[in-house]
Amino acid sequence: MRLKAMGAYGTHDATHNLTGYLIDDRVAVDCGTMSSKLTLAQQSKIEAVFITHAHADHTRDLPHLVLNRFHQNVKPLTIIAWDEVLDELMVHYFNGRVWPDFQNIISPTTHKPAIRYRPLFPGRKATVDGITYTAIPVDHTVPAAGAIVEIDGQAIVFTGDTGPTAAIWRKVNRTENVKAIVTEASFPNDYQDLANVSGHLTPHTFECEIKKIDVDAPVYASHRKLPYERKIESEIRNIRDRRARILVEKQYTF
Questions:
Q1: Taking the CA of residue 21 as centre, how many other CA atoms within 13 Å lie in the half-sphere pointing to its CB?
Q2: In this structure, is residue 86 part of a structural domain?
Q3: Which of 33, 95, 149, 240 could tie 7 with a disulfide, CB 3.0–4.6 Å?
């Protein structure tokens, strides 16, 4: 299983990219950075996108990915999310005002819509094109659900944005062959109050979350906010748990 961190930050500049992950070149998890870093040929290989929540740093490139695929000879892109998150995407993004409603526009190339929606319900597995997804609500300021993505007997876990949470870890602890967990640490420890009110983790609460996890797999901190990157990374390196890792923008193989 190959995981490419297209973007590992909660803000961006010329050298840091918004949150987005690509598994085996065919499944995206969040879409803050995707079309802006991929060729049209690479975008055409993506079959599905799981969206953890509707905030712009996780969805910025999704409208452009959909538009690019609309003009290609590819099957509809499946947008997968907790049903409450899908509602937000349809109401606030693909509503015919902010962006076209591509579910109801027929591509001149394929004579099909460019997208199809697949709502998920908490804790229930759903298989799309041979890949299994389980959505688990997490604790953020808007409807948000992490994902357990299972391919060929291996699993990767993504929380998306979250503060201290519990349900997803209970599910992870019952999941076989978890290869990696990607969660977040958005602010340094001295911004704990801000993290609490905005539904995020600091290295301190990231460490507390790791203690809830029984599986022996690397736990990556993503979504670091600029300009706190170096301080957050230093604080994560001081965590006395060998599973604690810093997610960087590169490809991982598990």
A1: 27
A2: yes
A3: 33
Q: Is 114 helix (H, G, I), strand (E, B) or coil?
A: coil
Domain count, the chain: 1
The two tokens of residue 192 are 């704990």
Q: Is residue 253 part of a domain?
A: no
Joined together, the tokens standing for residue 103 give: 């579910």
* CATH number of the domain that residue 39 is part of: 3.60.15.10
Alpha carbon distances (Å) from 233 to 13, 207, 220: 18, 13, 11
The predicted pLDDT at position 81 comes to: 98
Extract the tokens encoding 134: 């389980």
> Is 12 among the domain residues?
yes
Banded model confidence at residue 128, pLDDT cuts 50, 70, 90: very high
Q: What is the dihedral of CA 47, 53, 58, 62, to 10 degrees?
A: 40
**Is 80:118 a contact under the CB 8 Å cutoff?**
yes
254 located within any domain? no
In this prediction the pTM is 0.97
The residue type of 15 is T
